[in-house]
Specification:
alpha+beta, binds adenosine-5'-diphosphate, 10 helices, 5-stranded mixed sheet, Beta-Lactamase, Heat Shock Protein 90, 5-stranded antiparallel sheet, about 55% helix
Length: about 475
């Protein structure tokens, strides 16, 4: 596995090397161009000065040796004045047909000039060219015309050695190489230092995260760092731990409750069976014990059904798939399916519906919610009572109500009805066979649809449970 520290310092060095290379090439090329211009400019200044001398003293080249020396000295003086000391210069003068007629020094033996050079010079164009000297160094030549009466009288060649300039360029390369190497070293050391400084708190975080065991989920990471990003990381980790802890605790509570709810019917069944086996019983007594146990089995089955429904939840929420849904036929189907159960208990089940707009809903889960509400109404309404399902528009949403004429619920229980495994004392005493999971499931389903559930009740008159759902036009986010 790659180490972030290694990758960071390697990347910094590679990036720095690229930048330094580009910078060095730029400097090298720039200096070379400037030096070339400088050399050519100096050469032109020298050539023009000599050309002017020769132009003003047309016979200078034919005069005596003494005067020749004088001219040479003058040339030397001019060169000195122009700061060419230490740079090998040479001057040659050729006739218009390209033959050497005069020279100051001879770094490159040259007796004639190429025709094309003469041609260009005659046209008034100065000609620059580079050549190799006998000592292997490069020299630069400039040819210009020395005119007389508008014609080319002579062709002047000014020459300078490029040895000094090449040496300067070599020194520049050495300087750039050493400088770049030093900077790369600094970049490598610096990036390693920075990476270590930035990653040490992360290493500390992961070390303390590893020490958090399941038994101490309440522990939180503490990080003292001046860096905002690292503090945010610690905060994010702690909030994940917070949610994880809440989930684990709710799971534990749920398992405790479920075990408790399972224990009651199982204990009753065990008691019934033990009593039945204590001595010989009449067939009527056995029948009674079996009926008792059958009731407990029914309760266990109901519990299992609710637990299975909760097992389908992802986390604490039902995994709803929302789609435009017309509720009226769905409710009518559920009411039709359950009517037979209500008839058996002589409870009148009816459905009243207004024309309501479609909702964004999951048909299966909404059906489950309505079944849970009707199941309660059936269980807690005495024979001869009535249960009415209503579908209507309320405000900007839809209200699905289940109203019964049953026992009702005491006001102190109303705020707790939607807590898992909560059952009223009356329901427990009556041993209605409930599980305390029906209404919490309805609440989760309602909330997953962006809706809510509420209950109102009057003891001995009945209860009304209302499922509020938003209509399709409203944006609903599945939980
Ligand atoms: P249960 O399976 O026990 O009915 P629920 O979560 O569906 O579980 O209901 C929780 C408690 O709310 C019930 O035990 C009962 O006491 C009370 N309750 C629910 N619906 C009604 C109702 N229609 N009439 C009277 N009490 C009700």
């Amino acid at each position: 596995m790659k180490s972030l520290r290694g990758v960071t310092s390697r990347s910094a060095v590679i990036l720095m090397a690229g930048i330094l290379l580009a910078f060095s090439v730029l400097i090298y090329v720039g200096v070379e161009v400037l030096l070339d211009r400088y050399v050519d400019g100096r050469l032109m200044a020298l050539a023009e000065t000599i050309a002017k001398i020769v132009e003003q003293h047309p016979n200078i080249l034919e005069e005596s040796n003494e005067e020749h020396t004088l001219a040479t000295e003058r040339v030397q003086r001019t060169k000195d004045q122009q700061g060419f000391q230490g740079v090998t210069h040479s001057i040659r003068i050729f006739s218009p047909d390209g033959l050497l007629v005069w020279k100051v020094s001879d770094t490159v033996p040259q007796q004639s000039v190429a025709d094309w050079v003469i041609e260009q010079v005659r046209l008034g164009n100065p000609v620059y060219e580079s050549a190799r000297a006998t000592d292997g160094t490069t020299v630069r030549h400039l040819y210009i015309s020395i005119p007389r009466h508008g014609q080319t009288r002579y062709v002047l060649q000014a020459e300078t050695s490029l040895r000094r300039y090449r040496d300067t360029m070599k020194s520049l390369v050495i300087l750039l190489t050493i400088g770049s190497g030093a900077m790369l070293l600094v970049a490598w050391i610096g990036s390693r230092w920075l990476a270590r400084k930035a990653l040490t708190p992360i290493a500390m975080l992961s070390a303390s995260a590893e020490t958090i065991s399941e038994a101490e989920l309440g522990r939180r990471l503490t990080l003292e760092s001046p860096y905002q990003e690292l503090l945010q990381l610690a905060q994010a980790f702690n909030s994940v731990m917070e949610r994880f802890q809440r989930n684990v605790e709710s799971q534990r509570r749920f398992v405790d409750h479920a075990a408790h709810e399972l224990r009651t019917p199982l204990t009753i069944m065990q008691g019934n069976l033990e009593v039945a086996l204590l001595k010989a019983r009449t067939s009527e007594e056995y029948r009674e014990a079996i009926i008792n146990n059958l009731e407990q089995v029914g309760r266990l089955i109901a519990l299992k059904r609710s637990l299975l429904t909760l097992a389908k939840f992802s986390g604490d929420k039902p995994p709803v798939h929302l789609a435009p849904l017309i509720l009226e036929p769905l409710i009518r189907d559920v009411v039709a399916e359950l009517t037979i159960l209500f008839d058996e208990r002589r409870i009148k089940l009816s459905f009243e519906s207004q024309s309501v707009p479609p909702v964004l809903g999951d048909a299966q889960w909404l059906k489950q919610a309505l079944i849970n509400l009707l199941d309660n109404a059936l269980r807690y309404t005495p024979p001869g009572g009535a249960v009415t399902v209503r579908l209507q528009t309320v405000g900007e949403g839809i209200a699905l109500t289940v109203e019964d004429t049953g026992h009702g619920i005491e006001p102190e229980h109303l705020p707790h009805l939607f807590e898992r495994f909560y059952r009223t004392d009356w329901a427990r005493a009556k041993d209605s066979g409930g599980t305390g999971l029906g209404l919490p499931i309805v609440k989760e389903i309602a909330e997953a649809h962006g809706g809510s559930i509420s209950a109102t009740s009057q003891v001995d008159k009945g209860s009304i449970f209302t499922l509020h759902l938003p209509v399709q036009t409203r944006q609903t986010t599945p939980a």
